[in-house]
Inverse folding.
């Protein structure tokens, strides 16, 4: 398997390669006064197209930005110019968190040749690399999905795994939210965590500059969180975005089989029948 991360230098060196597709997956939590589409039109990496995480999702699901069906995903990314055999590089305007989500989306749909730009657009700009403005006009392509259900978990699967002790659940929300002594950013959600889950905030997997930590430091963080390397792993977060950072980090350590709880806490925390633990 290829390294799931790509450096700014390697991406710049590969400009012009046939089959290279660059996606801007910038996304912000509700309430943050930023418009990723407008920012994309203002400046983006040359040749990039905009991937809308909320638009490329399951519109029949009341939960936010849930995984689209294979058919809907294939149609959406094909319209963005991503076809069979392409290599996809995903970046985001604030680093790599939303880019990790799109990386995971593609992996669920069977694409292995997908990588996340380490440091994202901020690092690219800091290095004074070229930028482009205006709308993107991709040439439509055909993307054939090969769905991998083993990389996705829903409420029943996560609860069953916790009850049976069959998988390790990593909750990457901030420690205060995990403990239950900090409020949830979305109204109507209970505070706390899934009984049996362990906390490893996704921010600890990244440097202050938004780069992913090296393999040795990542391995130590997972070990310190008592994550056993040879047991199944499920990553969870607030709504399925930052959990993918843990899946990306684990892939960098050779664990390509980590699953993501797509609904994450917005699903679990809204269910009155879901067991709850707090440390508050």
């Amino acid at each position: 398997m290829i390294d799931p991360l790509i450096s700014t230098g390697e991406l710049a060196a590969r400009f012009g390669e046939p089959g290279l597709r660059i996606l801007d997956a910038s996304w912000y939590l509700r309430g943050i006064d930023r418009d990723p589409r407008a920012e994309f039109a203002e400046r983006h990496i040359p040749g990039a197209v905009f991937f809308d995480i909320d638009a490329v999702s399951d519109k029949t699901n009341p939960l936010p930005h849930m995984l689209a069906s294979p058919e809907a995903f294939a149609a959406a990314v094909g319209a963005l110019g991503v076809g069979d055999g392409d290599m996809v590089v995903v970046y985001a305007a604030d680093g790599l968190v939303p880019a990790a989500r799109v990386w995971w989306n593609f992996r669920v749909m069977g694409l292995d040749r997908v990588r996340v730009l380490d440091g994202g657009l901020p690092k690219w700009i800091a290095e004074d690399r070229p930028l482009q403005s205006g709308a993107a006009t991709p040439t439509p392509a055909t993307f054939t999905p090969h769905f991998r259900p083993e990389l996705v978990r829903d409420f029943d699967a996560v609860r069953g795994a916790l009850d049976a002790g069959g998988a390790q659940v990593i909750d990457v929300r901030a420690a205060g939210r995990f403990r239950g002594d900090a409020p949830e950013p979305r109204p109507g959600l209970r505070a706390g965590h899934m009984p049996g889950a362990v906390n490893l905030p996704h921010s600890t997997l990244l440097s202050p500059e938004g780069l992913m930590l090296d393999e040795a430091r990542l391995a130590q963080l997972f070990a310190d969180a008592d994550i056993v390397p040879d047991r199944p792993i499920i990553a969870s977060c607030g709504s399925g975005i930052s959990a993918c950072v843990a899946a990306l980090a684990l892939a960098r350590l050779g664990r390509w089989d980590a699953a993501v709880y797509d609904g994450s806490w917005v699903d679990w925390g809204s269910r009155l029948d879901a067991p709850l633990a707090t440390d508050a």
